[in-house]
């Protein structure tokens, strides 16, 4: 397909999607770097081999997967012209995103309760990596929530319909990416010691 063909709107839409994918690829490379450093550092003598991730991280994993499903349902509702169901599913996704972040911080509290802080005399290199990876991911979830708020605002302004939903599609792509990324990170942190 020739990327130079089509209307100006089609060209702009392709350019916006391409920019999002460039951003996603750069984020994938960043997280691959951190997880690679995690693996390399696991040979250190002070590495915690028997640490178990807090249950709050498992709960947050389930929550973010459900939030991706609710975003899919919002998109389907919009495609079918059901504005009220679109609104409902967008708000469900937003609430689930907030619950995800709450559970992440609950997980951090459980780690602190075990005596491990991010830095200082009670820190450990294993925990510092877990904090770093999870906090950077949370920041991306916050960006996803901001995108979702913009989508909700534009939805209320009736800027989307079954044939014009680029903003919603871009936000959904990013949301699904941070969902898949967390599932990968959770499984990585759960199984790689």
Automatic annotation (TrEMBL):
Residue ranges of domain Heme-copper oxidase subunit III family profile in the record: 1-193
Identification of the protein by name = Heme-copper oxidase subunit III
List the keywords (alphabetical).
Answer: Cell membrane, Membrane, Transmembrane, Transmembrane helix
Q: Key word RNA-binding present in the record?
A: no
What are the TM regions of this chain, as residue ranges?
20-40, 52-74, 86-108, 128-153, 174-192
The answer to whether UniProt assigns keyword Lipoprotein to this entry is no
Spell out the coiled coil positions from the record. Answer: none
| Native source organism of the sequence | Flavivirga rizhaonensis
PANTHER family, A to Z: CYTOCHROME BO(3) UBIQUINOL OXIDASE SUBUNIT 3, CYTOCHROME C OXIDASE SUBUNIT III
Query: GO: which molecular function terms?
Result: cytochrome-c oxidase activity
């Amino acid at each position: 397909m020739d990327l130079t063909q089509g209307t100006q709107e089609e060209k702009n839409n392709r350019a916006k999607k391409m920019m999002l994918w460039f951003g996603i690829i750069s984020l994938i490379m960043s997280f691959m770097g951190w997880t690679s450093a995690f693996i390399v550092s696991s040979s250190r003598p002070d590495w915690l081999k028997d640490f178990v991730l807090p249950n709050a991280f498992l709960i947050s994993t389930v929550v973010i997967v459900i939030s991706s499903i609710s975003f899919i349902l919002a998109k389907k509702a919009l495609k079918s012209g059901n504005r009220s169901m679109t609104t409902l599913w967008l708000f469900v996704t937003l609430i689930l995103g907030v619950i995800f972040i709450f559970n992440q911080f609950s997980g951090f509290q459980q780690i602190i309760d075990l005596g491990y802080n991010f830095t200082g005399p009670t820190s450990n290199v294993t925990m510092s990596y877990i904090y770093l990876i999870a906090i950077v991911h949370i920041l991306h979830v916050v960006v996803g929530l901001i995108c979702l708020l913009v989508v909700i605002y534009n939805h209320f302004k009736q800027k989307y319909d079954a044939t014009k939903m680029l903003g919603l599609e871009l936000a959904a792509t990013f949301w699904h990416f941070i969902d898949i990324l967390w599932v990968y990170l959770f499984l990585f942190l759960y199984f790689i010691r």
